[in-house]
Amino acid sequence: MEIIRTGMAGTMESSDINVVIEKQEAKGIKIYLNSSVEKQFGDQIRKVILETLEDLKVTNVVVRAVDRGALDCTIRARVQSAVMRAANKENELDWEVL
Protein backbone atom coordinates (compact mmCIF):
# COMPACT_ATOMS: atom_id res chain seq x y z
CA MET A 1 0.00 0.00 0.00
CA GLU A 2 1.36 3.40 -0.91
CA ILE A 3 1.66 6.00 1.83
CA ILE A 4 1.04 9.48 0.41
CA ARG A 5 0.78 11.65 3.53
CA THR A 6 1.18 11.50 7.30
CA GLY A 7 -1.53 9.53 9.07
CA MET A 8 -2.34 9.50 12.78
CA ALA A 9 -4.66 7.51 15.04
CA GLY A 10 -5.16 7.11 18.76
CA THR A 11 -4.99 9.24 21.86
CA MET A 12 -2.72 9.81 24.83
CA GLU A 13 -5.27 8.36 27.25
CA SER A 14 -4.54 5.43 29.52
CA SER A 15 -4.83 2.02 27.77
CA ASP A 16 -4.45 3.61 24.31
CA ILE A 17 -1.65 4.23 21.84
CA ASN A 18 -1.04 7.20 19.55
CA VAL A 19 0.41 6.09 16.21
CA VAL A 20 1.84 8.36 13.49
CA ILE A 21 2.79 6.86 10.10
CA GLU A 22 5.07 8.83 7.77
CA LYS A 23 6.49 7.94 4.38
CA GLN A 24 10.27 7.71 4.14
CA GLU A 25 12.54 7.55 1.11
CA ALA A 26 14.88 5.02 2.70
CA LYS A 27 13.97 1.34 2.44
CA GLY A 28 12.47 -0.45 5.41
CA ILE A 29 10.35 0.26 8.44
CA LYS A 30 11.60 2.28 11.40
CA ILE A 31 9.67 2.12 14.64
CA TYR A 32 10.17 4.71 17.36
CA LEU A 33 8.36 3.64 20.52
CA ASN A 34 7.77 5.56 23.72
CA SER A 35 5.85 3.39 26.18
CA SER A 36 5.06 3.42 29.87
CA VAL A 37 5.43 -0.39 29.77
CA GLU A 38 8.33 -0.64 27.33
CA LYS A 39 10.55 -2.75 29.58
CA GLN A 40 7.86 -5.40 29.98
CA PHE A 41 6.09 -5.26 26.60
CA GLY A 42 8.21 -3.20 24.17
CA ASP A 43 9.16 -6.20 22.01
CA GLN A 44 5.53 -7.34 21.77
CA ILE A 45 4.31 -3.85 20.86
CA ARG A 46 6.91 -3.59 18.07
CA LYS A 47 5.96 -7.07 16.86
CA VAL A 48 2.26 -6.17 16.61
CA ILE A 49 3.06 -2.92 14.78
CA LEU A 50 5.36 -4.71 12.32
CA GLU A 51 2.94 -7.60 11.69
CA THR A 52 0.09 -5.17 11.06
CA LEU A 53 2.19 -3.20 8.56
CA GLU A 54 3.21 -6.43 6.83
CA ASP A 55 -0.44 -7.57 6.62
CA LEU A 56 -1.31 -4.25 4.95
CA LYS A 57 1.73 -4.53 2.64
CA VAL A 58 3.21 -1.26 3.88
CA THR A 59 6.93 -0.63 3.39
CA ASN A 60 9.31 2.31 3.66
CA VAL A 61 7.67 4.11 6.56
CA VAL A 62 8.52 5.63 9.90
CA VAL A 63 6.21 4.76 12.77
CA ARG A 64 6.15 6.94 15.87
CA ALA A 65 4.14 5.35 18.66
CA VAL A 66 3.40 6.68 22.13
CA ASP A 67 1.87 3.86 24.17
CA ARG A 68 -0.01 4.10 27.45
CA GLY A 69 -0.61 0.39 28.04
CA ALA A 70 -2.71 -0.51 25.00
CA LEU A 71 -3.73 -4.11 24.34
CA ASP A 72 -2.62 -5.83 21.12
CA CYS A 73 -6.06 -5.41 19.53
CA THR A 74 -5.94 -1.65 20.19
CA ILE A 75 -2.41 -1.37 18.78
CA ARG A 76 -3.47 -3.23 15.63
CA ALA A 77 -6.57 -1.04 15.18
CA ARG A 78 -4.62 2.19 15.63
CA VAL A 79 -1.91 1.13 13.16
CA GLN A 80 -4.56 0.10 10.61
CA SER A 81 -6.38 3.42 10.99
CA ALA A 82 -3.18 5.48 10.73
CA VAL A 83 -2.12 3.57 7.59
CA MET A 84 -5.49 4.01 5.91
CA ARG A 85 -5.45 7.72 6.67
CA ALA A 86 -1.88 8.01 5.37
CA ALA A 87 -2.85 6.17 2.18
CA ASN A 88 -6.01 8.30 1.81
CA LYS A 89 -8.13 5.12 1.91
CA GLU A 90 -9.97 5.59 5.19
CA ASN A 91 -13.18 4.02 3.94
CA GLU A 92 -11.59 0.99 2.28
CA LEU A 93 -10.50 -1.08 5.29
CA ASP A 94 -12.09 -4.53 5.47
CA TRP A 95 -13.16 -4.71 9.12
CA GLU A 96 -13.84 -8.47 9.01
CA VAL A 97 -12.30 -10.28 11.95
CA LEU A 98 -9.77 -12.86 10.86
Q: Which key phrases capture this entry?
A:
globular; 34% helix; 98 residues; 4 strands; 4-stranded mixed beta sheet; Ribosomal Protein S5, domain 2
Descriptive overview:
The structure is a single chain. By secondary structure, the chain is α+β, with helices and mostly antiparallel strands. It is built from two helices and four strands. The chain has a four-stranded mixed beta sheet with strand order 1-2-4-3, covered by helices on one side. Strand 3, helix 1 and strand 4 form a beta-alpha-beta unit. The two termini are 19 Å apart. The model has no long low-confidence stretch (mean pLDDT 93).
Q: Major beta sheet, specifics?
A: 4 strands, mixed
Q: From the alpha carbons, calculate the radius of gyration and give it in angstroms.
A: 12 Å
Under the CATH scheme, which class?
A: Alpha Beta
Overall number of strands: 4
Give helix % range.
Answer: 25-40%
CATH topology: Ribosomal Protein S5, domain 2
- General form: globular
What would you say the CATH architecture is? 2-Layer Sandwich
Total helix count?
Answer: 2
What class, by secondary structure content?
alpha+beta
Physical arrangement of strands within the biggest beta sheet? 1-2-4-3
Oligomerization category of the chains in this entry: single chain
Contiguous runs where pLDDT drops below 50 for at least 5 residues: none
- The mean pLDDT is 93
Query: Distance N terminus to C terminus?
Result: 19 Å
State the order of secondary-structure elements, H for helix, E for strand: EEEHEH
Q: In percent, how much strand structure appears in the residues? A: 15-25%
- How many structural domains can be distinguished in the coordinates? 1
Family: Belongs to the CitD family.
GO molecular function: lyase activity
Pfam families: ACP (PF06857)
Function: Covalent carrier of the coenzyme of citrate lyase.
